[in-house]
Specification:
The protein is built from 7 helices and 7 strands; from the N terminus they run ααβααββαβαβαββ. By secondary structure, the chain is α+β, with helices and mostly antiparallel strands. The chain has a 7-stranded mixed beta sheet with strand order 1-2-3-4-5-7-6, with helices on both faces. Strand 6 and strand 7 form a beta hairpin. Helix 3 packs across helix 4. It is globular and about 40 Å long.
Length: 171
């Protein structure tokens, strides 16, 4: 029932009216904190710290989706991997990939294409930097990532949690 109400209230055509994915600005941080709390069960402190570290850095980008206020975010990194588990699984090729570090969509805006648009913008960003693909680790949303072209390359305990390491290579 909730999803039906949310979808009818927002509607597939409305995602176009929400704007497009764009690079986050410092002014977005208060809205992004709300998305992190509602959509990703994060704390306000986590959100403030993480978003502040992502804005205006050369080796990473924070994309947001929304017109008046952001309703989704995605963080992507373009730097060498320090995680030994990921290095062991992906080997040297990991340093030719971008790392999608986190994504969240406000629950009221799910199932209407918002995440797809943000992932598309991140993919474009990674390709522009000469990356050969994107990797991520996730404990949920595996079917979503598979629909986006990612394949599971391993199931491991990463940072103390059971995770799926997923990879999407560019053509």
């Amino acid at each position: 029932l909730f999803m039906t109400k949310a979808f009818s209230r927002i509607g597939a055509k409305t995602t176009a009216k929400l704007g497009r994915a764009r690079v986050a600005r410092s002014a977005d941080i208060p809205h992004l904190s709300g998305v992190a709390i509602r959509g990703d069960a994060r704390t306000h402190e986590w959100a403030q710290d993480r978003f502040s570290r992502f804005i205006r850095k050369k080796d990473r980008e924070l994309f947001v989706f929304g017109f008046r206020k952001p309703v989704a975010y995605l963080g992507i990194l373009d730097r060498e991997v320090e995680d030994t588990t990921v290095q062991r699984i992906l080997g040297d090729k990991v340093n030719h990939l971008a790392h999608l570090s986190w994504i969240a969509v406000d629950p009221a805006y799910r199932k209407v294409g918002v995440a797809r648009k943000v992932v598309a913008e991140a993919t474009k960003w990674a390709k522009e930097r000469g990356r050969k693909g994107i990797w991520l680790d996730t404990s949920s949303m595996r079917s979503f990532w598979e629909k986006m072209g990612f394949v599971s390359v391993a199931q491991e305990v990463i940072h103390g949690k059971e995770r799926n390491l997923m990879l999407r290579k560019f053509k």
